[in-house]
TrEMBL record, chain A:
The keyword Nucleotide-binding applies. This is pantothenate kinase. It is found in: Cytoplasm. Its EC number is 2.7.1.33. One of its GO terms (biological process) is coenzyme A biosynthetic process. The lineage of its organism: Eukaryota, Metazoa, Chordata, Craniata, Vertebrata. One of its GO terms (molecular function) is pantothenate kinase activity. InterPro entries: ATPase_NBD, Type_II_PanK. Keywords: ATP-binding, Coenzyme A biosynthesis, Cytoplasm, Kinase, Nucleotide-binding, Phosphoprotein, Transferase. It is an enzyme of class 2 (transferase). Belongs to the type II pantothenate kinase family. Homodimer. It comes from the Eukaryota. SUPFAM superfamilies: Actin-like ATPase domain.
Length: 376, 777
């Protein structure tokens, strides 16, 4: 055992994982050391090699596991080692297969610590123990989220900023994504959109509170889309939504008042009643699955925007950061959120987004693993 | 957002085959003026103003100077006069009947000079031409939200027990709230197809501070897509049978249990519809509808709480078609508000929520009649009360109304401004009624039976009071039918008119009697008894004057109590009085319980009397005859002799055999003629008669004549005496006053006596000194 230059104690054996087991998705980050010396390689046990090879040489695992190659952080220095941070996800429904694999690959023999956060860290704890002989270190979900987010922002995205916003959010033509820095992040309102939604007011790295939450989140979007359109995946649902027209499903202010409702300063184009047209049978018979998917997406997104905005006002915070896997490949929602924040606050609020959307909890879990090794 | 709902229930087809019982519904149309209409997605609400000619009993003193008094002459004359008062009518019916209704109105609209009809609601556009064609009135469209707010202010101000809290698992589902003297500011969350959140700060100052597109239309539209169920109420019924846990992802589905460190319980919904993406199985319609209902209710509740907190508002009313009397949605909204505010804010609902738009539109058109300058009272005889619209949850009501759902609200213009008694310790927490029969099932059953049994007697009395009118019997029969129906309704829906109380049962009876032109069934009895009692006045005074001070004080109190036995409102007594015409003052005294009484603070009262006199006593009197003349007057005379000014407050209108202000004027005059002490007090203005503003055998100290309140304040009243079962037991028994008070009554009902731990004719003598004053002594 020796001390390396950054002060990490060399007790930490590979592999380094951080895991966030959510309601719908499991997010896994894996640090692949690129600075392995020849001796190290020789000493490396076969099972460890096999894991590394399996993870880094594939982009898909089984039917449902995916490595988000475009998100990997290269030449990252962690705990004195340099390597690549890989971002992998698979459905929580496949958790049992993952645990099986852990047993099959003899993971427990590696004497590593498996740091996990998210609800599943609790739910699957005993399965890890009994099936794979693995002891999970359970970590607080919100701590991990905030620490992971601040860390990834600080190291940047392979030389580019992690954070971005939309310029001219109120103008669909001129609306463009702009990178920015989160150099002075506090206070921020952090809106984490997973299956459900949590809203946090963050004042510093370790000072935050959960303001509220809503059950209308990504799970609701996908769940309703599956029921309404028969689709099966998030990608499929988003693909349909991108082609649909929600105004055929939603009742707008102008559908009721013929134009703007001036008495209350409501624009004619504002949604008065989500799915409001669907009260009528004729209308129900004349819409497409795409329209329904789009309306579901718009409804859920606007609602999250509305709650976030109210919380920001109540908490007197101007910076609203949206994260979570609901925003993955979902520019409809990110742009809509940016617009909603800007429009309803008359420019007071700014919506910020991060490239690694849903992975911060897992990164936070990995950081805890590394931090544990620093403690004397 | 808007309450507008596109009619998808086939309301376009006009069904004319249904025969209306129209004169029962569109009452007083021949005197109607100023119409307003609020047409929603499925229901139409019509409002109009009418003048009602009804009979009132008046008493008039004979000209005694011109006429020699003889024993056979009654001391005053009773006459029945026609009086015209204003009434507001609100009728709610399904849009299907709109054409039939308009035809009926057109045929019966005789005297109106009205040229326009105020209209609001989304359907107003659609039916504009039809209305203009049928009624030959110009449709004048009013802004929906302003109407809603105007209507809301009106009911909050004028209808006691308008507001309620819903508690599904409570002893009573509906907990009614007292009228708050200051109704502003409040938040109105109107859940139509979308949601509008409006902050109301004053009569004409309100602002839409927010809203949401996820509302009733979302429930209906999305629900129809998911379950292939078309109708809104069917969707609600589906939801009430479903289990959301198979569709929603709960915290325990993610964590395996509760998430303690965030205070999230395992049963909390983490993701609405979260299970429907992964599960292979089909979901039942019921479960999906339930999940959808929770999703929408929770979302609305959360937004309402965020807005309430931001604007620092604690009174949040919910309305709109999503709520409208549906127990299912009232429950989920209540649950949500409770969850998000940790119990700090209660979800409030309104009994006449469905009428707000129509009331508001009407008020806008009636500004020249200044409806807002007057006080209005709900007419229990003409109003159908709160009905549940979910047929499944209320089969009884559905059965009675058939499929023909008409609902009515009538409000009478009161002759005076009603205000709080300035001596209430806390007017906002004051509740007049001692027992809430909506909560107390045993008491409810007893009193409903009791009133039903007493009905024969009341009918008989009503006929006897109008012997000269041959059709009186027929009218009395109609009265019987109406009141019995009301009792029947209350048996099944105790909450129909707000809190059910002995007072409301009595008041409903008075309203029904008035409805059938029996303004004062007891007028002749009162006359006779007053006459009889006057003859004994001087003898009673003489007996009292022979007593020592101590003896006289107890004799005065016993006299007061004995007088209070003469109460035609108590069945036990009316039976005695009917069968034994000789039953007199002395016999009544013998009936009284010996001391110690059931509640007995007489000793403290006597001690107090040994101290300095009160400055001014306000005395709420009860019955005519022995009570007022031989009980109250001698007692009052003693107070006057101590140097205390006395204000006698009596009913403005008749109720049972209670002495009315008109009668009391004459009686006082006659007593003054016999008794120089009273004469002197009158002329020195130390004895004053005022009217209470009430026509009830009970007493609501928060709705009293403004003049009375002024007199009370000006005279520096420091003692309030409340006499009788109706005023001191059924109501005000627990009323806390800011000055000394004396509540006394004889319990003339064995069931009530038993409840209070005594026997019939037990005496309550409750002298109270508020703790603040006690400190000074």
């Amino acid at each position: 055992m020796f001390l390396n230059t950054t002060g990490c104690l060399w007790i930490l054996s590979f592999p380094w994982f951080g895991m966030d087991i959510g309601g719908t998705l499991v997010k896994l980050v894996y640090f692949e050391p690129k600075d392995i010396t020849a001796e190290e390689e020789q000493e490396e046990v076969e099972s460890l090699k096999s894991i590394r090879r399996y993870l880094t040489s594939n982009v898909a695992y089984g039917k449902t596991g995916v490595r988000d190659v475009h998100l990997e952080l290269r030449e990252l220095s962690m705990c004195g080692r340099t390597g690549t941070l890989h971002f992998i996800r698979f459905p929580t429904a496949a958790m049992h297969r993952f645990i099986q694999m852990g047993r099959d690959k003899n993971f427990s023999s590696l004497h590593t610590t498996l740091c996990a956060t998210g609800g599943g860290a609790y739910k699957f704890e005993s399965d890890f123990r009994t099936t794979a002989d693995l002891e999970l270190v359970k970590l607080d979900e919100l701590d991990c989220l905030i620490h992971g987010l601040l860390y990834v922002d600080s190291v940047g995205f392979n030389g580019h900023p992690e954070c971005y916003y939309f310029e001219n959010p109120s103008d669909t033509q001129a609306c463009v994504k702009q990178p920015c820095s989160l150099a002075h992040p506090f206070p921020m309102l952090l809106v984490n959109i997973g299956s459900g939604v949590s809203v946090l007011a963050v004042y510093s790295k370790d000072n935050y509170k959960r303001v509220t939450g809503t059950s209308l989140g990504g799970g609701t979007f996908l769940g309703l889309c599956c029921l309404l359109t028969g689709c099966e995946t998030f990608e499929e649902a988003l693909e349909m939504a991108s082609k649909g027209d929600s105004t055929k499903v939603d009742k707008l202010v102008r559908d009721i008042y013929g134009g703007d409702y001036q008495r209350f300063g409501l624009q004619g184009s504002a949604v008065a009643s989500s799915f409001g047209h669907m009260m009528s049978k004729e209308r129900r018979d004349s819409i497409s699955r795409e329209d329904l998917a789009r309306a579901t997406l718009v409804t859920i997104t606007n609602n999250i925007g509305s709650i976030a905005r109210m919380c920001a006002v109540n908490e007197k915070i101007e910076r609203v950061v949206f994260v979570g896997n609901f925003l993955r490949i979902n520019t409809v929602s990110t742009k809509l959120l940016a617009y909603a924040m800007d429009f309803w606050s008359k420019g007071q609020l700014r919506a910020l987004f991060l490239e690694h959307e849903g992975y911060f909890g897992a990164v936070g879990a990995l950081l805890e693993l590394l931090k544990a090794s620093e403690d004397p | 957002m808007a309450t507008y709902v596109e009619a998808v229930r086939g309301s376009h087809s006009m069904d004319k085959s249904i025969t209306l019982p129209p004169d029962e519904i569109f009452r007083n149309l021949e005197n109607a003026k100023r119409f307003a209409i609020d047409i929603g997605g499925s229901l139409t609400k019509l409002a109009y103003y009418s003048t009602v000619q009804h009979k009132v009993a008046k008493v008039r003193s004979f000209d005694h100077a011109a006429k020699q008094e003889s024993d056979g002459e009654p001391l005053y004359e009773i006459s029945v006069q026609e009086e015209i008062t204003a009434r507001l009518h609100f009728i709610k019916f399904e849009n299907t009947y709109i054409e039939t209704c308009l035809d009926f109105i057109k045929d019966h609209l005789v005297n109106t000079e009205t040229k326009v009809i105020k209209a609001t609601g989304g359907g107003a556009y659609k039916f504009k031409d039809l209305i203009e064609k049928k009624l030959k009135l110009k449709v004048d469209k009013e802004d929906e939200m302003s109407c809603l707010i105007k209507g809301c202010n009106f009911v909050l101000k004028n209808i006691p027990h308008e507001v309620f809290v819903y508690a599904k698992h409570g002893d009573s589902e509906f907990r009614f709230q007292n009228t708050h003297p200051d109704i502003f500011p409040y938040l109105l969350v109107n859940i139509g197809s979308g949601v509008s959140i409006v902050k109301v700060e004053a009569e004409d100052r309100f602002e839409r501070i927010g809203g949401s597109s996820i509302g009733g239309g979302t429930f209906w539209g999305l629900g129809a897509l998911l379950t292939k169920t078309k109708r809104f109420d069917e969707l609600l019924q589906l939801a009430s049978r479903g289990q959301h846990t198979s569709v929603d992802m709960l915290v325990k589905d993610i964590y395996g249990g509760a998430y303690g460190c965030l205070g999230l319980t395992g049963d909390l919904i983490a993701s609405s519809f979260g299970k429907s993406a992964t599960a292979e199985k089909e979901f039942s319609k019921e479960d999906m509808a339930k999940s959808l209902l929770h999703m929408i209710s929770n979302d609305i509740g959360q937004l309402a709480c965020l807005y309430a907190r931001l604007h620092n508002l604690s009174r949040v009313y919910f309305g709109g078609f999503f709520i409208r009397g549906h127990p299912v949605t009232m429950h989920t909204i209540t649950y949500s508000i409770n969850y998000f505010t940790k119990g700090e804010v209660q979800a409030l609902f309104l009994r006449h929520e469905g009428y707000l738009g129509a009331i508001g539109a009407f008020l806008k058109g009636a500004e020249e009649d200044n409806p807002n300058q007057y006080c209005w009272g709900e007419n229990y005889a003409g109003s159908s009360g709160l009905l549940s619209v979910s047929p499944e949850l209320n089969p009884m009501q559905r059965e009675r109304s058939g499929t023909f759902l008409f609902d009515m609200l009538e409000m009478d213009r009161l002759e005076r401004q009603l205000v709080n008694l300035p001596l209430l310790q806390d007017s906002s927490s004051y509740i007049p009624d001692t027992v809430d029969l909506t909560e107390d099932t045993l008491a409810r059953e007893y009193w409903l039976c009791c009133f039903e049994e007493a009905l024969d007697g009341v009918v008989k009395r009503a006929i006897a009071s109008q012997k000269d009118q041959p059709e009186a019997a027929e009218r009395a029969e109609k009265f019987r039918q109406k009141y019995r129906d009301k009792l029947q309704t209350l048996r099944h829906q105790p909450f129909a008119y707000g809190s059910l109380t002995v007072r409301s049962l009595l008041d409903t009876r008075e309203h029904c009697l008035n409805e059938f032109n029996f303004p004062d069934p007891y007028s002749k009895i009162k006359q006779k008894e007053n006459d009889l009692a006057l003859k004994s006045y001087q003898r009673v005074l003489k007996t009292l004057e022979e007593l020592s001070w101590e003896q006289r004080q107890i004799a005065l109190v016993r006299g007061l109590l004995a007088g209070n036995v003469f109460d035609w409102g108590a069945k036990a007594v009316s039976d005695v009085l009917e069968s034994d015409p000789e039953f007199g003052f002395e016999k009544a005294k013998q009936q009284l319980q010996e001391r110690p009484w059931l509640v007995d603070t007489y000793n403290q009262w006597i001690e107090r009397l040994k101290g300095p006199p009160h400055k001014c006593a306000l005395f709420f009197v009860d019955n005519s005859g022995m009570d007022i003349i031989l009980g109250v007057f001698p007692f009052v005379r003693e107070l006057l002799s101590r140097g205390t000014e006395v204000v006698l407050a009596s009913n403005s209108g008749p109720a049972l055999n209670d002495v009315t202000n008109g009668e009391l004027q004459i009686l006082t005059e006659r007593i003054a003629a016999m008794d120089p002490a009273i004469q002197a007090s009158l002329s020195e203005d130390r004895l004053t008669l005022v009217q209470s503003g009430s026509s009830s055998p009970c007493l609501d100290l928060s709705r009293l004549d403004k003049v009375l309140a002024t007199v009370v304040r000006e005279r520096g009243t420091d003692l309030v005496v409340i006499e009788g079962m109706g005023r001191a037991i059924h109501t005000n028994y627990y009323a806390a006053l800011s000055c000394e008070s004396l509540k006394l009554a004889v319990i003339k009902n064995s069931w009530l006596a038993d409840r209070l731990g005594g026997k019939i004719f037990s005496v309550v003598f409750k002298y109270e000194v508020p703790s603040i004053i006690q400190g000074h002594h």
